[in-house]
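Project outcomes to date are best conveyed with an example. Our students and postdoctoral researchers have been running inverse folding experiments weekly, and each run begins with a structure described purely in tokens. The record below, which covers 152 residues, was selected by the lab manager from last quarter's runs and is presented without edits.
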């Protein structure tokens, strides 16, 4: 991936990479586990022969323009997160199937939580309101395959 911007997405390549890394961290957290700590990531990369400093990790997550582009580091991160390296190496790298499936599951769980909340709150007031909220949630457009690489 070369540094630049996409006419549809005004973010730099480093900002897109930061978004992808944050998505990988968010998936772990959304599944009920604690998100990986810097120390866990550092240790995982050390096993692969990489020394990831805390400053470098924070610059990656921030999409910092002064961060050196290192394809080997990105491959090591992909291995750590168990995703195809192209996901991190290419601006429009395909969202890994596992990540896409987990995003759909998380989305369904969140909709379910909102439906249950609406039923508890609105059920006492108006059953038609509960039905309207449920119908609106079910008709939300599904997550696109490229949502992890484009702005929300």
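After processing, the design step wrote out the following sequence:
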């Amino acid at each position: 991936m070369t540094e630049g911007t996409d006419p549809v997405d005004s973010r730099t390549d480093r900002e897109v990479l930061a978004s992808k890394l944050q998505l990988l961290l968010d998936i772990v957290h959304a599944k009920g586990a604690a998100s990986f700590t810097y120390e866990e990531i550092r240790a995982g990369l050390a096993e692969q022969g990489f020394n990831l400093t805390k400053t470098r990790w924070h610059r990656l997550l921030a999409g910092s323009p002064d961060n050196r582009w290192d394809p080997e580091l990105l491959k090591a991160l992909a291995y750590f997160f168990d995703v195809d390296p192209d996901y991190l190496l290419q601006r429009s790298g395909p969202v890994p199937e596992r990540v896409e499936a987990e995003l759909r599951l998380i989305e369904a769980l969140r909709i379910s939580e909102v439906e249950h909340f609406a039923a508890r709150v609105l059920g006492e007031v108006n059953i038609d309101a509960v039905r309207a909220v449920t119908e609106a949630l079910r008709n939300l457009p599904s997550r696109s395959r490229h949502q992890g690489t484009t702005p929300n």
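Confidence is low (pLDDT under 50) at residues 1-6, 144-152. DSSP finds seven helices and no strands in the chain. The training component of this project remains on track.
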